[in-house]
Amino acid sequence: MKNNYITFTALAAALALVLGYVEHLIPLPIPIPGVKLGLSNLAVLFMLYTDRRAAWVVMFLKVLLSGLLFSGMSAFLFSCAGGILSLAAMHALHASGKFSVVGVSIAGGIFHNVGQILAAGLILRTGSVFYYLPFLIAAGLVTGIIIGIICKIVLARVHK
């Protein structure tokens, strides 16, 4: 059983990494810095509904490895803050049993952006980054809906 857990978790982390790389290749015509589709969060959200503990492992591996491979230290810190806050919010909403996959995903998208802005404010020591927050919340809402719908479809197909 332990080998299956490790294998499944590693596959989900690899999928998150590949989806993150694909996301870097897709240019978004949005002039707001930091807005992304959040494709790699699909793997984390899927794992949250499959194995909550493994979701944390996948999120940390995704942040660590994508930070080492695709971005620098500051992007790593922003992603880590966003990932922790996002997954904590999604974990709490999922555990309550009162939210759909799409609702949990929306919270994840929004709180990921909130976490990144909080980290940017602390690192850069300025409050001016908070002007981006309404735009990033709107982006998190839209991308959360998209990722949530995709995850809902994937979960339904996997459970068949």
UniProtKB/TrEMBL annotation:
Signal sequence region: none
UniProt KW keywords: Membrane, Transmembrane, Transmembrane helix
Transmembrane segments: 30-49, 101-124, 130-155
InterPro entries in alphabetical order: Hpre_diP_synt_I (IPR014535), Hpre_diP_synth_I (IPR010898)
Highest taxon in the source lineage: Bacteria
Short name of any one Pfam family annotated for the protein: Hpre_diP_synt_I
Protein name: Gx transporter family protein
Protein species of origin: Candidatus Avimonoglobus intestinipullorum
